[in-house]
Amino acid sequence: MTIPTVDVHAHVLLSEVDQLVEGLPGLAAARELDARRNGAEALAVNGGMIRERLPLLTEVVRRLAAMDTEGVDVQLVSPSPSHYHYWADAEVARAMCETANTAVAKHCAHAPARLTGLGLVPLQHPGLAVQMLDHALSEGLAGVEISSHAPGRELSDPAFEPFWELAAETGAILFLHPFGCTLDERLDRWYLSNSVGQPTENAVALSHLIFSGVLDRHPGLKLVAAHGGGYLPTHLGRADHAWRVRPDARGCAHEPSHYLRHLWFDSLVHDPHVLRELVRAAGADRVLLGSDFPFDMGTTDPLAALRAAGLTGPDFHAVRGGNAAALLNLSAKEPR
């Protein structure tokens, strides 16, 4: 049996969602916050970058051609995080998530053997998030993409317990992908909002899930962290020490590093030495190939980035696609 090459971190831009929220009062405030967090220089660069990549983000034929060039057999396609819109009220949030879920399913239906999709849920409305996870699964999607927090709610919030429970029961994939950083204007120059902010948000979100005991209560969760989990997986020694010596840090049953073996991480860390350490810390069976297709903060050659880590043959092929194929229940495909 051959193993497909599977990229679990690839995005789609949904014009249907943009049209639905355009002109709503909350959108202007959200864009103002985004501008403050990123800074004017970053926003100017982002506009051109998105325009240049728009065909790859929207056209299935162009996506498949790029996948062929990269040697990728299967993509797990998630909405651009710009579609989260966690400012929306319940009515708008329901319409937006249903629209996004249906649009992603339609996009992937053009090439079902090569594209598997993820939908969206409104984290700002935990009860509705449960319903929208159900909706995403009913559309044939593998799960949903979530950010690192919602306004006023961390992922450790007890209100999310029914959401975690349903995700664990159904085997839904939860792709943890931050959008924006709460350090705000401190990161508004030199694109620190992304290069520092995203890995910070990953680390904070995963820490809330670990220390609050969410992973103890829902051991069946299939949670994949983008960007290699940010700073967390390779810097857990301090957290383990806090857990051992401080009773106020002991909200989980085991040392924090124990839970790395109960999560999945994509390989997008931009450094072969860090990737090797991620594999060591989490285990080769917990790392999945990721490219952040087609954004500029990703890689256009995820296999080359993986080869640079110098993993053993079995570990290389596990990360290349074996782990994702098992996680997504993919049928065997010819590797490239």
From TrEMBL:
Q: Where do the Amidohydrolase-related domain residues begin and end?
A: 6-330
Arranged from A to Z, the UniProt key words for this protein are: Lyase
An example of a GO molecular function for this protein is:
aminocarboxymuconate-semialdehyde decarboxylase activity
Q: InterPro entries, from UniProt?
A: ACMSD (IPR032465), Amidohydro-rel (IPR006680), Metal_Hydrolase (IPR032466)
This chain's protein is named Aminocarboxymuconate-semialdehyde decarboxylase
Q: Which domain of life is it from?
A: Bacteria
Enzyme Commission code = 4.1.1.45
Task: Specify whether Lyase is a keyword of the entry.
Answer: yes
